Amino acid sequence: MTWTLVAYLAVTTYLLRLAGLITFSGREMSEAVMRYLSWFAVALISGLIALQALTIDGSWSFDLRLAGLIAALVAVYLRAPFFVVLLLGVGTTALLRVFFG
Amino acid sequence: MVASGSSIVGNWTRLVSLAVINFLIGALFGSAASSADVSPTMTIVMSATIFAGASQFAVLGVLLAGGSPYLAWLAAVFVNVRYLILGVTIGSTLKMGATERIVAAHFLIDPTALLVQLETKPSVKRRTFWQAGITIYLSWMLGTVIGTFGGTAISDPERFGLDMAVPILLLALLGQGFRGRGNGLAATSGAAVAVVAFLFVPSNIAVLLGCLGALIPMFLERTIAKPKSQ
Fold it and tell me: Per the CB < 8 Å rule, is A5 touching B203?
């Protein structure tokens, strides 16, 4: 790790963020387009969640993390409050690891 | 979409949860960096200037595995390019002047982007963005500082289910906005597309392809809904 690398990382990450943020900043968009754009964000994040639960360091890995995800999904489906979803998901994984880990 | 963040208690709960989790992950990063012989100063500057957990861990991982700095940078770019997409999706809905936008860019992360999407009123979107952004940043920094000096206090994140903390946090945030039109389908499609894509491409690219899952509810709305209205 060098200062040069840190600098490159910082600048690149910032530019990626800024580029997206200023792309459509001035314009008015139709309600449909705004809805579609937010669906892209939702789809992206959902993909991220799925892959984080099913893979480790770039390869498949099915383990107790999946149980935590399923617990959280059930909580979401049952319209549980935010904090309950969080606790159930993380707690399930931790608890199962105590017994089976 | 449901304006779910309007309740004070709900807002507080979210902010505290975001703060706690990002503090813990920040501490993990500080600890991991310290184990990798990254100086405390460099570790702290990393967290302050990059502020992107997944990529920070990825960089450490690549370097520890013997990869070159260029490879580490490339990995970080792959992991962070999703911010470009997230920025585009919230850029038009955030009512900010140029100067504010330039500062705000640094605080664009998954939770702040999601929270902006969940709110419906522009003024609330903006306020929520800053509240969450600053809270998470401070927690992340505090965690990093403690982690880099605290040594191996949390050497076993799996024991507390912490390795799932971030994905579940994001899922909990998503869960608050599920009630809106098409979001459930967008989420399921996104997850499905990303998982299928991973059969063919590396996970970083699979994540990006996941956003194409949004095309499914879009397609359904434009082909099925439209004829009905005629």
Answer: no
Q: Which residues in chain A belong to E strands, given as ranges?
A: 55-56, 59-60
Q: Which two tokens stand for residue B192?
A: 């499905």
Instruction: Give A19-43 pLDDT, tens digit per residue.
Output: 999 987 767 777 788 788 888 888 8
Which among A2, A20, A90 is the nearest to B87, CB-wise? A20
Nearest to A73 by CA among B217, B170, B22, B180: B170
Its pTM stands at 0.81
Residue B4 · residue B114 · CB < 8 Å? no
Q: What is the dihedral angle through the alpha carbons of B187, B188, B190, B196, rounded to the nearest 10 degrees?
A: 160
ipTM of the complex: 0.85
Bridge partners, A55 (sequence order): A60
Rounded to a whole number of angstroms, the CA Rg of chain A reads 19
Rounded Cα gap, residues A65 and A96, in angstroms: 9
Structure tokens at B200: 């063919």
Nearest-CB residue to B87 (from A1, A10, A19): A19
A87-99 tens-digit pLDDT: 899 888 888 888 8
